[in-house]
Each structure stands twice: as structure tokens, then as C-alpha cells.
Amino acid sequence: MEAVLVDFHGTIAQVEDPVDWVLAAAQACGLSLPRLRATALADLLVAAGRAGGPLPQRVPPHLVEEWANRDLYEYAHRAAYTGLARAGLDRAGLDRGPDGSAASAAAQLPEALYDRLLVPDGWTLYPDTLPTLAALHRQRVPIAVVSNIGFDIRPVAEALGFARYIDAFVLSYEVGRCKPDPAIFQHACTKLGVPPERALMVGDTPADGAAVHAGCRAYLLPPAPAGTTNGLAAVLRLVGVDPSD
Length: 245
Description:
alpha/beta; Rossmann fold; five-stranded parallel beta sheet; two-stranded antiparallel ribbon; 44% helix; globular
């Protein structure tokens, strides 16, 4: 293997804990929530559909188009996830209390929840991420981040300290293709200047594994919560890199 393609969410980093996510967004809106209330609200919001979380149990009809295009357009990504958050908040009845100021703050919460995606504090690197990427970089193995995403992750990558190891960012909303489309993997290989058969795609979903249809090899990681080891370091053995070098 002469190059590594690597997914972002679930492979390099994980979104913050759902309760911390709700509490941070509420604080940004000037809304004080007891932790027990935030926990119940986080459960509803994750079920409704959280960016970086499991797929929503149901997409409301008025959001179907935005949902389908969420990884192709910035506006659709924001509209889909803020819309799903509003649906979850409506079920929670957060904006129905007698306090007008609280209701006003709650109305701002969907945007604040989404904005947590755009800041480094909303993400946690897996423990193996920096050592693994640094070892590949030292051995001059080119790396491309290949992500289905509707916003620019480069500022987050810079702040979290892994951008220095990345040779190319191949983001679905920029290239107009989403995994599992073979074209996005082929585009990444072209950016790195390697043929697909000499590239290894590393991810955590079947969409990442679809890189084999572009001619790449694939290595899929198990699901792992933030702060736990997800097996990323095994990539070094797969491409023949000694982490001590």
C-alpha cells in the first residue's frame, strides 16, 4: 500500500457526549438546564437525528429533500439537522413553558446544537489518531481524509492537530460525490497521485468498505465511543510502517 484514505467521523474523531452536547448548546443560548433534563433531552434529540449520531428514526416529510442532499450541500446539511432538532424539541415541549425568555432561548437551540459540529470542542480525537497519522507522515505515506459531510472540517482538523499530516481533504459536499460512490475514492487517489489498487481505505461503515469497488483495499473499524481505542493503529501494520521509526 502506497497511500491511506481515512474517514473522519467514527475513524479519526467522535462527536462529543450527547449530554455534554446539549448542555454546551443550551449554555450558548443562555438556557440553564439541569443535567437530568439535559439527559432526557439528549435522548430525544439523538433519536430525532443528530449529526454524527445514528440515523434518525423518522425524517419528517418537509425535510426529506434536505436529508437526501445533506452531504452534498452546506445549506442542506444545516437545514436537515436543525430541522430534525426542532422536531425533537417540539416532542420534548421545551418551548412551551410559561417563561417567555426560556422559550426564546429554546428557539435558538437547534442552531446552537448544529454549531457544536463546527468547533473543535464538539469533537474528540481517538487516542490512536495522532500517533498513527504522524507515523504514516514520517514514512511519507500520503493521506487523504475522505468524508461524507456538508461542511468544511479543515478548521477543526487544524485545531485538533491532525491537519498537518493530511495531504488532501476529499469532502463530499465539495466534490459532489458521496460514499459509497466509487468516484469519491477514485478522486482521492488522483489527488494523492496513486492508483486505487495501491491505496487502503480506512473507515467504520459499509460505505467506506465500498472503496473496494473503486479498486482500493479497505479496513473497517468497529464502532467506538469517544475516548476509547478504535483499532486505527493497526493501519501501520497493514501498510508496513514501523511506529517507532
